[in-house]
Amino acid sequence: xxxxxxxxxxxxxxxxxxxxxxxxxxxxxxxxxxxxxxxxxxxxxxxxxxxxxxxxxxxxxxxxxxxxxxxxxxxxxxxxxxxxxxxxxxxxxxxxxxxxxxxxxxxxxxxxxxxxxxxxxxxxxxxxxxxxxxxxxxxxxxxxxxxxxxxxxxxxxxxxxxxxxxxxxxxxxxxxxxxxxxxxxxxxxxxxxxxxxxxxxxxxxxxxxx
Length: 210
Description:
Layout: H1 2-17, H2 32-35, H3 41-44, H4 52-71, H5 75-100, H6 112-123, H7 139-158, H8 171-192
């Protein structure tokens, strides 16, 4: 599912480029939370991007952090739950950004918030081949999360990102998505986990015994 998700991003961007407004009408504007002008933007904004570099970064990140989350949930039910998890993180990320900037009319686009949700969930699996989640208080998780959030905030405040052409980086949305993914992965996995044995990779590259 993570591969399909990443692959869908450039496909959707090709479609977006051919829209009359280049997808601008699908963006999210924080002020719409209070005016009610375009609430669907909470959802639609995560399927449009600001350029090919933006698409590439999110697709690569989805490939990196999506598989550990997807493996928690097997079968068709697991595929649906993975997509719902991704969308839930994206909605929280976008809505959180709107709460922080309630008067903004700027357009927010991109799947970064949802991808950061996958990152938050995946980091709770860091170094755990048995698929047991690390506690939210685990020092290894907290240290890694703190470094990621510090880099995220710095990138947003400095405003440097390849291919964004001076556009503001919505680092707050990334943070909301990350926290949502880290918190939600526990109950979500418990509710949707497959009954089959969890996937686990061996610690070496030798062929398995037969």
